[in-house]
Structure formats: structure tokens, C-alpha cells
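Lecture 7, part B: from sequences to assemblies.

Below are the input chains for today's worked example.
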Amino acid sequence: MTTLAAPARRRLASSVWGIVAWIAGIVFVFPVIWMVLTSFKQEQAAASNPPTWVFTPTLDQYATVFDRNITPFLLNSLMASVFSTLLVIVLATPAAYALSLRPVAKWTDVLFFFISTKMMPAVAALLPVYLLVKNLGMLDNIWTMVILYTSMNLPLAVWMMRSFLLEVPREVLEAGEVDGAGLLTSIRKIILPIVSPGLAATALICFIFAWNEFFLAVNLTATNAGTSPIFLVGFISSEGLFLARLCAAATLLSLPVLIAGWLAQNKLVRGLSMGAVK
Amino acid sequence: MTDVITRTDPKPQAPVAPAKGGSAKERWVRRAPLLPALIFAIVVTQVPFLVTIYLSTLDWNALRPGDRPFVGLDNYVTVLTDSRLRSALLNTVLLTAGAVIFSMILGLMLAVLLDRKFVGRSVVRTLLITPFLVMPIAAALLWKHAIYNPAYGLINGLFGGSTDWISSYPKAAVITTLVWQWTPFMMLILLAGLQSQSEEVLEAARVDGANAWQIFVRMTLPHLRQYLELGALLGSIYLVNTFDAVFSITQGGPGSATTNLPYEIYLTTFRKFEYGEASAAGVIVVILTIIVATFALRVISSLFRMEESR
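Predicted structure of the full complex, as C-alpha cells:
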């Protein structure tokens, strides 16, 4: 009897825990679902108490968002995120190579220097950066944000790329060298195929952090170089109803990162822990 | 437990020992790929900090024209004796610790749930990481207006009442939003820890008659220790800088109930224009961060040694 009952009991237990996990997942995601639902409502329905569950979906709020000229902010965010990510990858990949496959003498010190810059709070450097940028006439300039986001993401990318480069089997590299493959050939034929998923994940995570950044953007940009988070804050008005519009803008601006994060979710933990956790 | 980790993790290789000696040219060839990133990092992150130290010794209010006399450590005395900074420091500790501890506990519970096999596990994982991916400022505004609002917020809408959640419980309101965003982060790190446990060792314990709770307390938790430490410290490093949530949910209020150090320095710099004092406060924040970071580096380097000893 027990031999039959035990697996059955285990199956039952596992489906009960499965249901609990599903409930937890839905509870956690619910505010996001609510945001998306609200973005398809009219303002009156969005601000009703008790909450409106059944409504005719409308795209009015999204139209309002575009009427308020979201496009330049989106383009600024896109520029700051894409260019800083490219710059980060160009700087970090060779550096990671020099800290892993062909390490310099004091590679541990260098690695820890990089990570320590990540730990320095941005507030401490805000004022000198602000003054410097102001004196250079580069306030409210998207290239300033590109530089700052590059330095923000560089340590993360170096650590992450290093952990991916360490997965390149040394025997294969050495065999290539014996066969007379030059550095470029071994990068192209051996290293790149192995690390390219890692490279993509690193780029996605740098993109996410740059896209979401608010503190530097709010202090160093205004109308010309304002990024998406700045648009969102400016969207709140003290008079009239704005919740549905706000949800539409928030949904729209979160979408690129949601997609990037869902795509990179298997590598997310590795990036966030600087490559310490696989 | 370390040997368990060693046996079950996929084995990355330790880097080859760097060539000792070698010609000077050879050493520079090795260094060359590193230099652009290193120089960039030094210029963009270290130079501003040195400037901050210099500025912190000046009596400089940007609204007051004229010279900026050198005042030595006066700004530090002002800042350290100012009750505003002390309360900002306390708030920083409370907000950071509250958010880290609660997101850690929830993250551990969710990680344990997700470590089992069930129908749609990858879908549930995707649902659970979603809050972390929402733009932080969007998340803060969403909670402020769509959830906490006394007139049409979701909480009062579902459960009745007319509590103004933000002014009644400002710290809890900020912490809840942060916990919602950071629980997925903790969950991912702890899940990675759980999945690196050896299934054979757990099975052996089961055969020996250990029940699920005993296995969890005696084997899983010790195994998870490093992952818990890592999550707590990385979480603290990110959360100590919390600005978005304070800026948009409470503006540091009511009064200064939720003003943390980043927000206080922001106010000193861009509302009061006390550049000298703001710089001194910034230096103090860096010193505090270095203290926390020293622990963080120790944890990370122990994970690091683990990786190398393989």
C-alpha cells in the first residue's frame, strides 16, 4: 500500500506547492497587470472607487502620451542606453580578456578596483560632476549621459565578461595556438562563438540599467537631453485626473526593459551578482 | 558544505597564472587591452571624488556671490552636528535594512517554492521577476498613485476605508515598494544557490530518515549562507542609494520622516545650494559605504576563492 501511496502523496504535495507558487507569482505581478489594465481605461474609470474591472478598452491614453511629445524623450533614452552599452562592451571586453584568459600580473587588484567604483554612491560625485559638466557647457547634453552611464555599467560588464571568458576551454585555445592561429583568428573562431550569448546578456543588462537610470538624469538633464524617466515625472499634474495617462506612459516606457529582461532572464542573476553566482 | 558546492557546480577554470617576469614589452602587451577601461574608470569615478574632498573644505553657497574661503573641517562639523543629517543617516539605515531583510525573507520563500518542479514553473519565474524589470521611477509612481492613493488607490478600493497610506505610514510605504521591486533579485540569487545543491546528498539524507524541515535547516540553510550574504550585501549597495522611490513617493516627508542621505544631499545641493556642506556629506557617505563595501568585498572574494580553488 505504502509503495503506491507515497508517490501519489508526493504528487499531491507537489501540485499543492505548485498552486501556491502560481498564486505568489500572480500576486507579485498584479501591480504590473493593474498598470497595464489602467492604461486602457478612461480617466474616470481609472480613478473610480471601488475599482473598475469591466470596461471598454481604449487607446486614448496612449494617444495622449504621444501628443505630449514623448518621442524626443524616447530617442534620448535610446541614444543614451545604446551608445553607453556599445562603449561599455568595447571597453570591458578587452579588459575582461586581460583579466582572465591572458591575465596581467595584478589582475585581482584590478578586478576589485573596478567593483569598488560600483560601490561608490553617485550622490558623492554628483556635485563635482555637475560643476564640471556645467563649466564644459555640457549640461543637458545626451553625450554627458552616455559617458556617465558607461562608467556606471563598466564594472558590472568587466566582471560579467570575465566570468564568461573563463568558460572558454583553455585546451582549445592552446590547440589553436599550436596550429598557428593568430590572436584575431582565435578570437573570431574560438572565443566569440563561446562568449557571444554572454556578450548579449551583458549588453542587455547594461541597457536595462541605463534605460532605467533616474538620479543622474534628473540632475543633469532638462528639456534637450531629458530621458524617459524625466518624461514620466513631468507627466504628473496636480489638477485633474492623470492616472490612466500615467499608467499608459509607464507601461510604454517599461516595455523595452521588460522584454530585454525576459529574454535575458537566465543570465540576469549572473550579471546582477557581477558574475559571482552562475 | 564547500565540497558539495565544488562537486556540483559546473567547473569554470581558474585563470592561468600570469607570467612572472617576462620582458617589459610582453607585460605591456598584456596590459594594453586593459588600459582604456582602467583609465576611463579612474578619470570618471575617482577624479570627481577627489574634487568632492576639495570642495568639502570650502565655505561655498552658490547663491552667495564672492569668494569661497577655505574653512578646513568646518563643513564636517556642521554636517555631523546637524540633526537633519543624523536623521537622514538613521532613515537610510532603516529604509535599507527594512527593504533588504523583507525582500530576503520573501525571496527565500519564493526561491524554495520555485526550486520544486511544477506545471508552468518557468512562467511563474517570469511573472516573479517582472517587478524588478519595471522602471524604478514608474514603479514608485504606480504605487503612489494607483495603489496608495486614499481616494482611488487599489488598497482602499479593494478593502474599503480611506486611509492615506503614504502620510500615515511613510516609511512602510517606501519600504513596501522597494521590497516589491527587490524580492525578485533576492529570489534569483537564492534560487541559484538552491539549485547548486547536490541532489544525491539530499537524497542520501532523505534515505537516512531526515524530514524536509531537518534537511532545510541543517543542510540547505548552511549551504545558502554565502548566497544570503551576497544577496544582502549587493542589495544593500544598490538600496543605500535609493533615490527614485523617496523622490517620487514621499519627497522625503512628511517632515523629514523618509529623507535618506541621497535625498538630503540632493536637497542641500540643488535646493539650498550649500555646495561645501553637500560635499562634506558626500564624503561621509563614501566613508560609510567603504565600511559596508569592505564586508561586501570579503564575501565576494570568498566566492571568488571558491571559484579559483576548483
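Note for the exam: The CA atoms of residues 202 and 215 of chain B lie 7 Å apart. Keep this in mind when comparing with the next example.
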